[in-house]
Structures are given as C-alpha cells and as structure tokens.
Design goal:
By secondary structure, the protein is α+β, with helices and mostly antiparallel strands. The chain contains 2 helices and 13 strands, in the order ββββββαββββββαβ.
Length: 180
C-alpha cells in the first residue's frame, strides 16, 4: 500500500470540498481549485477527511494512488494557507521593484523587464534583502511563475549574478586558469 496514498487528507474549517465521482472542487478563503482525477481512483469524504482508494495493486494504480492524494492535499492546503516561493536577486546594479501589481526587474539588460502576475498570483518585493516572493493558492502555478522569473536571468557560475531560488546553491567555477 502506498504510504502517502493511504494517509487521509484532513479538511480544515472554512474549506468546502465537493466530490462528484472523480471530479473534486475545493473552496477556501484564498480561492477555489478544481481537478478531474483518473476515474479508477475512488475518492470519498468521511467525517472531515478525504480518503483515496485504489481498485487493485496494478502498477498504474499504485502510481496514481499517491499522486492523487498528494494533488488533493495540495488543493486543500492551497485554498486554506496558500503557497510561496522566494527568489533572490544577486548582482551589482540588479534590482527588483513593484509597479502597481507588476514586477519590474533591472537585471543587466538595456531595458527593464516587466512581469505581469496571472490571476491568483501576487508578488511581494523586499528591496532591502533583494528578495521576490511569489504567492498564490495553486502550487503548480506558483512554481511555474517563479521558474519563469528565474529564467529571465538565471544565475551564472562565475560570479553568481542573476535570479536564483532562496534555497538554491550555485556551483561556482574558477574562471580563467591564469587569473589568481
């Protein structure tokens, strides 16, 4: 049995879950998410907990079991608490600032790069620590928007300049062999 798949998803107060067969809709204070899961998985709600069961021990069912439970858990956590990814801007003259809801990046190009947040995503910039926070209720969307921002100027291995995740370690290179 899948260790993750057999754990129940606890639904906190203020979160409303609607299950119709393999369709799950979750509403909470942060927003609303919905997803259609594979029809083989049996999703049920019992006394404030969501349980996911698989029909057999087939390889595909074992693979879908834990994934389905993890996705439902991410939906419940997202609409109740939300998710956040923190990026850090490194480099001389590199900076990030807010212009209304949009994020404006000055990262060594001849022009500032403006990033408009999609629905359900908010940016927060701390100019003192040069950190960008990407916040939202959809874990996939938060991660994708953070990856798109990082792709504007990925960190380079010689001086470490660029945009990186806060917990990311950049492997540094020595540079020219003649330089001491």
């Amino acid at each position: 049995m899948s260790r993750i798949g057999r754990m129940p998803v606890v639904v906190p107060q203020g979160v409303d879950v609607e299950i119709k067969g393999s369709f799950v809709r979750v509403k909470g204070p942060k927003g609303q998410l919905q997803h259609t899961f594979p029809a083989d998985m049996e999703i049920s709600m019992e006394d404030g907990q969501i349980a996911v069961k698989r029909p057999s021990d087939e390889r595909t069912h074992r693979a879908l079991h834990g994934m389905t439970r993890a996705l439902i858990n991410n939906m419940v956590v997202g609409v109740s608490q939300g998710f956040e990814k923190v990026l850090e801007v490194n480099g001389v003259g590199y900076r990030a600032e807010m212009s209304g809801k949009n994020l404006v990046l000055n990262v060594g190009y001849s022009h500032p790069v403006e990033v408009e947040p999609p629905d359900g995503i908010a940016f927060d910039v701390d100019t003192r620590t040069r950190q960008i926070k990407v916040q939202g209720y959809d874990k996939v969307e938060v991660g994708q928007v953070a990856a798109n921002i990082r792709a504007i100027r990925p960190p380079e291995p010689y001086k470490g300049k660029g945009i990186k995740y806060l917990d990311e370690r950049i492997r540094r290179k020595a540079g020219k062999a003649g330089k001491v």
